[in-house]
Specification:
Multidrug-efflux Transporter Regulator, Chain: A, Domain 2; mainly alpha; 52% helix; 149 residues
Length: 149
């Protein structure tokens, strides 16, 4: 049976996680992951970094900013892998933000075919959102999209 090393090189972490070495260096510089240094000053990562990298990748795919990911990871002990319970807690905290963004995108998608933001071209033919071009008389710009009206 093959021995599993306690510490991994940056290349091994990159290969196992599917993340470029430069990305791992970036994550380390941002404080998302940490490495120890060998006697030859080479980075060595604890095996638990693989789960941290997985959490970072998944959170990024959902649009969670790196600052929020770091804040969540900072609540965990650095010397152990992210557990299932850790993940449930972190993802629950991000759920409300995701739901809000999904609702905003859904509303935007639903308005996309019939409305270009009321006012941005001073359209006069939108009786529901901009009757008699009242928004165009006040100012130009897509003012209602951000309000969700």
């Amino acid at each position: 049976m093959q021995d599993i090393p306690a510490m991994l090189s940056v290349g091994e972490v990159a290969k196992r996680s599917g993340v470029a070495v430069s990305t791992l260096h970036f994550y380390e510089a941002k404080g998302l992951i940490s490495a120890e240094r060998s006697g030859g000053n080479q980075r060595r990562f604890r095996r638990g970094v693989l789960r941290r990298v997985a959490v970072i990748k998944i959170a990024q795919r959902t649009g969670i900013p790196l600052g929020e990911i770091k804040a969540a990871l900072d609540t965990l002990p650095a010397d152990r892998p992210v557990s299932g319970e850790d993940w449930r807690r972190m993802s629950a905290a991000w759920r409300d933000d995701l739901d809000h963004r999904i609702a905003q995108l859904t509303a935007l998608r639903d308005q996309l075919g019939s409305c270009i933001g009321c006012g941005c071209l001073s359209m006069e033919d939108c009786p529901l959102r901009n009757p008699a071009d009242r928004l165009g008389k006040d100012a130009s710009g897509a003012r209602l999209i951000e309000q969700g009206s």
